[in-house]
Design a protein that fits this description.
The complex is a heterodimer of chains A (95) and B (194). In chain A, helix 1 packs antiparallel against helix 2 and helix 2 packs antiparallel against helix 3. Chain A is mainly α and 95 residues long. Chain A has 3 helices and no strands. Chain B has a single domain, classed as Up-down Bundle (Four Helix Bundle (Hemerythrin (Met), subunit A)). Helices cover 82% and strands 0% of the residues of chain B. The chains are: A mainly alpha (95), B mainly alpha (194). At the A-B interface, helix 1, helix 2 and helix 3 of A face helix 2, helix 4 and helix 7 of B.
Chain lengths: 95, 194
């Protein structure tokens, strides 16, 4: 395979990943909004909504921001943010 | 002796855009984290007031804005794939599409503010609405700045400035826009849903 062909294939994969990421983000957003209507417990709703935030954040960080191809330190920093902030909020609400 | 394939893999790990932009994004995320945590603590201290306040917000408008920002971010992400392929004109078209979705976000947000003002609700109504207006207006300012940045990189792309793999400026602009999206996906459930 020539170098040019490899680059084309990588970009095609990125486009597919972005489309899948967009679909997942929209689906999770809709689930998060209607979650309180299907779950009676407020604690479960809070935890569910904030787990969804972390899942959506991972898609944005890895797919849209392309940090899955970045140095480990930067990817870890951003993934930590989208896990830690919802976790702190959950602890405050459930305290 | 080092394995050439491993060496190639290591060198492939590159931070998109300028390092300074990533520090700026981290600083912005930290400021918003303080807002989010402050909002949560205030809600715990004023549970009934926050519950009544959230009930007065338009959740569907929030969902429309979520879809608009995510879709905008998607078009910005695929604009970057076009720049990688040296297809500047297609990238500009995709950035303009992304901006159209951002305009939907801004229109809905302004409609929300006007609806609340018409009900006599302002930033001084109570702690919930003080924080609501402060956090959402601060985020809106970032959306507006992001649109200026998208316009700049679209213009630069149209002028043919992102060639020969020198796309760092374009990547920095797209990363900023994704940060705006990342902040909204935390802000929306925190203020509107839970």
């Amino acid at each position: 395979m020539h170098k040019g062909e490899k680059v084309q294939n990588n970009k095609a994969i990125n486009m597919t990943a972005a489309t899948k990421g967009w679909f997942l983000l929209i689906t999770l957003s809709i689930i998060a909004v209607y979650l309180p209507e299907f779950v009676d417990s407020r604690s479960v709703t809070i935890m569910g909504a904030l787990v969804i935030v972390a899942l959506k954040g991972q898609q944005i960080v890895d797919i849209f921001m392309e940090l899955n191809n970045a140095p480990k330190l930067w990817r870890t920093l951003f993934l930590s943010y989208i896990v830690l902030v919802p976790l702190i909020i959950t602890v405050i609400y459930l305290a | 002796m080092s394995n050439p394939s491993i060496t190639a893999q290591v060198s492939d790990k590159k931070l998109p855009g300028d390092l300074a932009m990533w520090f700026f994004i981290l600083a912005e995320l930290t400021v918003f984290a303080i807002f989010f945590i402050g909002f949560s603590v205030s809600e715990q201290l004023n549970a009934e007031m926050f519950s009544l306040g959230k009930a007065q917000l338009h959740q569907t408008a929030g969902l429309i804005n979520t879809i608009a920002l995510i879709t905008s971010s998607f078009f910005v992400a695929i604009a970057l794939t076009q720049i990688h392929k040296a297809k500047a004109k297609q990238a500009v078209f995709l950035l303009l599409t992304a901006k159209a979705f951002a305009i939907i976000y801004i229109s809905v947000k302004i409609w929300e503010y006007i609806s609340l003002f018409e009900q006599g609700i302002t930033i001084e109504t109570n702690t919930f609405f003080t924080l609501y207006f402060l956090i959402t207006a601060f985020h809106l300012m970032h959306v507006l700045l992001g649109m200026v940045i998208l316009s700049f990189i679209a213009y630069s792309a149209w002028q043919g400035k992102y060639q020969n793999d020198d796309i760092s400026g374009f990547e920095s602009g797209t990363s900023y826009w994704h940060m705006v999206d990342l902040l909204w996906i935390i802000l929306f459930p925190l203020i509107y849903v839970i």
